[in-house]
Design a protein that fits this description.
Distance between the termini: 51 Å
Strand order of the largest sheet: 2-1-5-4-3
Strand content: 15-25%
Number of helices: 17
Number of strands: 15
Largest sheet: 5 strands, antiparallel
Shape: flat
Structural class: alpha+beta
Length: 567
């Protein structure tokens, strides 16, 4: 039931003091007890607190310095071992090519049986020595004259030699790595160096991810960042983190370690940590005492007036505390607090109801985007069974199993894009069964984009719609899917060279007016747009570049605040 407005008798708002214009309040006269007590507290407590705070801060800085020194020692120890690997691998490969007769034969780069015999011998020698020595993880030799490349790698790495060989066949790239530098390949960080002998490029690669992991595992902090870069600076530096960096003497790279300062300080003895807090509490005694005296001596109605003003201005959490006022003022205080509680509770209930409604709408959206895909897949399975194409039928059934496992494996509203990409690639293989010569697809996915979290089936549905609406008999449809992360924003692009879409729909999409569409044929597009806004935030955008007969490009962009994800 609504409360009636409070009526405060005029007798309650009379001043306790009859002050003349310009006369100071008794609280602030120099002869008042309150002023004297505050001055005494300041003179006695403040100097001691300043000394205690300085001492506590000094102890913290000592602990931080000692921790940074320990971390620096650990990094240098790791880099020393790595420098040894660098020196040994460079010396080994150079002597093998320049001193071994088969190596000298390869340096001549003359096609023939001698060169092939030398190549097979050197390849076997490199592979054998990789097992026996702890130097490089990969050796390679590239002959630009013969367009021939030899790659030997440690067995623990699963990437294809041909894939690395294709990248290393670029002499422009190899000339860039005349000195040891960082190189990114197969989702890992490597140190690489390439040198030319009589036009023949020889080089080594050392994976440093395991070294970074060992440093991280050796430190017992929960929030620690270990990384490698070609500079000794990080951007932007943070005062909340302790930054320790050390560089290699043999290569142009540095290892960085970032640890939260709060975690280091938490290792202080309990007495020192609590003593710092107690010092701060003692320092707060001066204003606390003033506040207590002020509340006892000031007129009670000023508190009520201030409370009503704050409630009116939107401070819904404010409540009047208990005071030793007269019974009438206690009743008014209780009435005010009850009224504020009722208002706050009504707001919470309204917010929770709205939140439940949005979640129900979101669940409905997720259910509405799937039926047409399932019908198409079931029709394909039926056709394969009629053709007695058992192998493709089994593959399609396995794909359906992965599809449902992906949907129902958790209640997460966002999933890593790497999971969805696997599902998309499986779907395109199934689609190839239905349209064997109807389309071609290419992928351009950056490693960072694989860790971006997206609503399940969002990108999958756009790729699927491309197959449904842009595929036509007699014409090969070219589709591309790209994903990248730049300057804190993720971008997904689904493009095709199909017939395009109508100009009116493009304008609706690009003006964020999709929700005004009444056409039921675009319900999937509308639902996908709403999921983007609900789950990726208002800064997320859906844009289209298309015209009839000119293909279609769909852009999905949204901020990415943290690439570390659940796996």
């Amino acid at each position: 039931m609504p409360h009636s407005p409070l009526k405060i008798p005029q007798t309650m708002v009379k001043s306790d003091y009859n002050l003349k214009p310009g006369e100071a309040h008794p609280l602030f006269k120099t002869s008042s007890i309150t002023t004297k007590i505050i001055c005494i507290l300041i003179l006695i407590i403040l100097p001691l607190n300043i000394i205690s705070i300085f001492s506590a801060r000094k102890s913290q800085e000592v602990i931080v310095g000692q921790t940074a020194s320990s971390i620096d020692t650990l990094i240098k120890s790791s880099i020393t071992g790595l420098d040894t690997q660098i020196t040994e691998s460079s010396t080994y490969l150079y002597h093998l090519i320049t001193n071994d007769p088969y190596g000298i034969t390869m340096v001549r780069q003359q096609e023939g049986s001698d060169y092939q015999n030398a190549k097979y011998y050197i390849a076997g020698k490199l592979q054998e020595d990789l097992y026996l020595q702890n130097s490089a993880d990969v050796y390679f030799i590239y002959s630009p004259a013969l367009k021939d490349i030899l790659v030997s790698k440690n067995s623990q790495f699963t990437f294809a030699r041909s894939e690395l060989g294709q990248l290393l066949s670029d002499t422009g790239l190899l000339d860039t790595y005349k000195q040891w530098k960082l190189y990114f390949f197969d989702g890992k960080q490597w140190l690489m160096r390439a040198s030319a002998i009589n036009g023949l490029y020889i080089g080594s690669m050392i994976c440093i991810d395991e070294i970074l992991d060992q440093i991280s595992d050796s430190l017992t902090y929960n929030n620690i960042q270990v990384s490698a870069s070609d500079t000794d600076q990080i951007s932007p530096p943070s005062s909340r983190k302790v930054h320790v960096v050390s560089g290699s003497d043999e290569a142009g790279f540095y290892i960085h370690v970032l640890v939260n300062r709060s975690e280091i300080i938490s290792s202080l003895p309990l007495f020192e940590r609590v003593g710092f807090l107690i010092t701060l509490l003692y320092l707060m005694l001066i204003p606390v005492l003033f506040m207590i005296l002020n509340r006892i001596l000031l007129r009670p109605l000023r508190k009520i007036s201030s409370a009503m003003t704050r409630l009116k201005s939107g401070d819904q959490e404010y409540r009047i505390g208990k005071h030793k006022y007269s019974r009438e003022f206690l009743n008014i205080n209780e009435t005010f607090n009850t009224m504020a509680d009722n208002i706050h509770q009504l707001k919470i209930e309204k917010y929770e109801a709205e939140l439940k409604r949005q979640k129900m709408e979101l669940r409905n959206l997720q259910l509405q985007i799937r039926p047409h895909f399932l019908l198409n897949t079931f029709n394909l399975m039926y056709s394969l069974s009629q053709l007695d194409d058992r192998e493709n039928l089994e593959n399609t059934i396995l794909y359906m199993s992965d599809y449902f496992r992906y949907i129902f494996r958790s209640n997460e509203e966002l999933e890593n894009f790497s999971l969805e990409l696997n599902l998309i690639q499986s779907y395109m293989q199934v689609a190839k069964l239905r349209y064997p010569d109807g389309f071609e697809i290419t992928y351009q996915i950056s490693p960072e984009a694989l860790q971006v979290r997206v609503p399940p089936l969002l990108i999958h549905n756009f790729v699927e719609n491309t197959i449904r609406h842009a595929l036509h008999d007699g014409i090969v449809l070219h589709i591309s899917l790209s994903a990248s992360v730049s300057q804190g924003r993720a971008e997904f692009v689904i493009a095709d060279d199909g017939p395009g879409i109508e100009t009116e729909l493009v304008e609706k999409i690009n003006s964020d007016s999709l929700e005004t569409l009444d056409d039921s044929t675009h319900v999937g597009l509308v639902n996908s747009y709403q999921r983007i806004k609900y789950l990726l935030g208002e800064d997320a955008t859906l844009r289209v570049i298309s015209a009839p007969g000119c293909g279609c490009q769909i852009f999905i962009r949204f901020p990415v605040h943290d690439l570390q994800t659940n796996t």
